[in-house]
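Bump. Still looking for Phosphate transport system permease protein structure tokens.
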Amino acid sequence: MGAGVLILVILAGVAAFLLVEAWPALWAEPDEVPGGDGIILYVWPLLFGTLLAAFFALLLAAPLAVAIALFITHYAPRRLATALGYVIDLLAAVPSIIFGLWGLSELAPLTVEPTRWLEENLGFIPLFEGPASATGRTMLVASIVLAVMILPITTAVIREAFLQTPRLHEEASLALGATRWEMIRQAVLPFGRSSIIGGAMLGLGRALGETMAVAIVLSPSGGVTFNLINNGNPSTIAANIALDFPESSGLDINVLIASGLVLFAVTLVVNMTARAVINRRRDFSGAN
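Sorry for the wait, here they are.
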């Protein structure tokens, strides 16, 4: 109980700090805020970029995490599964700046030609409208890097849930003539549904707050666009704070903290929503 109360006190303290420090920026005149358009128009492109990068990172990582977890728990030989589990877990120990450097130096150049193909063949879709970047420093690369970064924690949560599937449920499904895939659909996936959601939301939380990897990869322009292959990328809140804070002073610092308050609120809402979904799904879980 003491540990739980301490966590709540710390959370309340962080929220109070952000609110107090952001208050001058929230009531400042529009022309006093960087850009001269007010705090809302300053934060909105950053919030849009944060949500866009995190959404596509989760879109890439979540299905892959489920597939990896299923392979490790129900398909791979024991020795291979153990080795793969260690490798996936080790990805979580790699510093984010290393992922950023990898994305900038290796992944970005590799995406130049594929993004040109996407522009030529799928340019009618707003996501690939172009013009394609000549450097590869795009929102697409940032999303891929974020997907790799959130893959370990998402996979670990889902893998442990699949391992805890009641053995009798699996054997009963197989005894009734189900194939291995049918058994997984009937017994494993229903049992792990809440953990899949929980693991995905944990990954989303990390993607929302990731800083250095995004700051290194992206070449932001401040615009709001769904285009994933252009250089005109919106930045993210965390990356913008990291890049601008050292040279800021006075009201500019309050503006950056105000954007941090928005990120704090978004992360809190995401986690509360995930908890609500998990609690609602628990009554319908295959574990029952």
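The CA atoms of residues 237 and 260 lie 7 Å apart.

Edit: fixed formatting.
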